[in-house]
Amino acid sequence: MTATAATDAEGSGAHPRFAAALEELGLGELHAEIRRFPDATRTAAEAAAAIGCELSQICKSLIFAADGVPVLVLMDGASRVDVERVRQELGAQKVTRAKADVVRETTGYAIGGVPPFGHRTKTRVLADRSLLDHDVVWAAAGTPHTVFPMEPKALAARAGAALVDVREQTS
After folding, report:
1. Three-class SS of residue 125?
2. Cβ(165)–Cβ(85) under 8 Å?
């Protein structure tokens, strides 16, 4: 599968809201880094295969509901979120995966294309420290066909994320 690189906002294939967010955040140079794939990169495994990187270099943007309030968790593609750890981190009574309609309503994007920032609404963001194991991670650019690379600390900062340990521990 080959990717196309873009040189401007219109040609990047990024979701218009995400393209605008890049400009607002002073990250316009990232338009040239966005890669569009003819086949979907909806899952972390699909994205890693298309990009040719390690699964853990994919940054998943996952929406959960903490006591009914949406929260974004940024997690490396090789790991799963430990919902109990998220609950403890937030001091919530109950944390569940958000349904597709809540994800779209909260972020403005469909599952499989949710970027780490540039959302419709302001939500609390947690980023798992496992993302910092890499020099560069790849995240969705607002569609299931587009991704962009970014240094993990910068990505977490732009997303307004608190760095936490919320991944499931392997035994």
Report:
1. strand
2. yes
Residues 6 or more apart from 34 whose CB is under 8 A from it? 5, 6, 12, 13, 14, 141, 146, 147, 148
Q: DSSP label at 14?
A: -
The arithmetic mean of pLDDT across residues 17-30, rounded, is: 91
Burial of 130 (0-12, 13-18, 19+ CB in 10 A): buried
Q: pLDDT at position 93, please?
A: 97
Q: How many CB atoms lie within 10 A of CB 44?
A: 21
36, two tokens: 């569009």
Give per-residue pLDDT as tens, 39-94: 878 889 989 999 999 999 999 999 999 999 999 999 999 999 999 999 999 999 99
* CB 165 within 8 Å of CB 127: no
pLDDT at 113 over 70: yes
Which of 96, 150, 82 is CA-nearest to residue 118?
150
Look-up of token digits 């936490």 = 164
**Burial environment of residue 171 by CB neighbours within 10 A (0 to 12, 13 to 18, 19 or more):** exposed
The pTM (predicted TM-score) of the whole model is 0.90
Query: Which strand (E) or helix (H) includes residue 62?
Result: strand 58-66
